[in-house]
Write a structure and sequence with these properties.
By secondary structure, the protein is an alpha+beta fold. The protein has a domain of about 90 residues. It is about 45% helix and about 25% strand.
Length: about 140
């Protein structure tokens, strides 16, 4: 199920230090470009949105109590699917939905998990290389003194 919403009206309920707050959804990171535009969202259950069960999510919040996190969506929620740069054309909307569904049908959860693992591995490798470079620079600095 899809819907079209004005990005500025979209809110998320988050928990910060045990207190619930409502904040604008499309204000951080890549999604900040959505402000002032129409967006298409697709409904998904909580397990798909977060990639874990409710119990795992709650355990994560217990382990990281200061984490600002969204409230678990008991009935699911809508996630970003497409940004409309201009006006919303109904024919284009149907094409976008068809293309989105086509991609989802051809991408398995395993493919998505593999891509996430590859990204994490790459991130760790870059961090390791940066650490090694900093360590070598500091070591050379102390040897020169």
């Amino acid at each position: 199920m899809y819907r079209i919403v004005w990005a500025d009206t979209r809110k998320s309920k988050i928990i910060v230090n045990g207190k619930r707050r409502e904040v604008s959804r499309y204000v951080h990171g890549e999604e900040a470009k959505c402000a002032g535009h129409w967006v298409m969202e697709k409904w998904a259950p909580g397990e798909v949105l977060w990639g874990m069960t409710k119990e795992q999510y709650e355990a994560m919040l217990v382990q990281m109590p200061g984490l600002a996190a969204e409230q678990w969506p008991e009935k699911g929620d809508y996630e970003f699917s497409y940004l409309f740069e201009g006006s919303v054309d109904p024919v284009f909307v149907h094409k976008q939905i068809a293309m989105h569904e086509f991609k989802l049908e051809r991408t398995t959860m395993r493919d998505r998990m593999d891509a996430m693992e590859q990204a994490e591995d790459k991130k760790e490798k870059i961090a390791d290389e940066q650490f090694e470079n900093l360590y070598e620079a500091a070591r050379e600095e102390t040897l020169c003194q």
